Amino acid sequence: MKISEIQRGMSNISVEGKILDISEVREVNTRYGKRNVADAMVEDDSGEIKISLWENQITSVRVGDKISVSGAYVTEFRDVLQLNIPRSGKLELQKE
Questions:
Q1: Fold observed for domain 3-93
Q2: Which backbone phi and psi does 74 adopt, to 5 degrees?
Q3: I need a labelling partner for 67 at 20 to 30 A (CA). Which of 13, 33, 83, 95 fits?
């Protein structure tokens, strides 16, 4: 799927793109306790979208990496769409 085709409420999304930027890591309280999260901006040839990275996902990727995401779902925060990867989803580095 292309990033430009992603809409609010969609789920089980698979997308590929390149990481443009990764935010500072911040600690948040979840129902599972305190966890680290960072936001990555990912682009393909149709657009860009923010993806939430949790815990070990944060250190597994770097700016410039090409990634593929599967099993993700879309949420909206402050009128901005973002992809979330549940425990059942996958974030993988693509081989060059």
A1: OB fold (Dihydrolipoamide Acetyltransferase, E2P) (2.40.50)
A2: -105, 135
A3: 33
**pLDDT, tens digit (0-9, with 9 covering 90-100), for 5-62:** 999 999 999 999 999 999 999 999 999 899 999 999 999 999 999 999 999 999 999 9
Task: Give the residue extent of every domain in the chain.
Answer: 3-93
pTM: 0.89
User: What is the structure's pLDDT at 96?
Assistant: 65
Taking CB atoms within 8 Å and a gap of at least 24, the contacts of 84-92 are 84/51, 84/52, 85/51, 85/52, 85/53, 85/54, 85/57, 91/51, 91/53, 91/57, 91/60, 91/61, 91/67, 92/67, 92/68
Residue 45 CA, chain-centre distance (Å), reads 17
